[in-house]
Amino acid sequence: MYLDLLTVLKGSWLGHAGRHSAWLYTIANVLHVLGASLVVGSIAVFDVKVLAEHGKHAWQVGRYAIPLAAGGLALQIPTGIILLAVEARALGVNPAFYTKLAFIALGLANVAIFHARFGKMLRAGALPPEARVYAGVSLIAWIFTLFAGRMIAYL
Hints:
Helix content: over 70%
């Protein structure tokens, strides 16, 4: 069923447009990289703040970093679909693609759990020591998402 969905995506108007329009593919690629830099850069700044200063005043960083990361993710999803549609059958079975999706899932689950557990404390300006574990997992997950995404071209 998954392979059938990839075949349909590749054969869709989006796949066709991505393969035959240098501008669509180029713009999607540039915006995907921009989205990645916003996601990982913003999250990394927040995570380092939590790690280095035990979360002291992390909310000040978070009030800027979190919307930037969300904006980056909002860029990444549609541009990622365009990039995938171009060669969906080949890219969709690439081990690096699976790895990238797994690290994205880990990063998103981690941020959801972090905010569920520590959201009120974050807004109050103090985080418990265990918040550092989540910041470390986050940093690793998003950096490895970048590595896996880059490796898609080489596997």
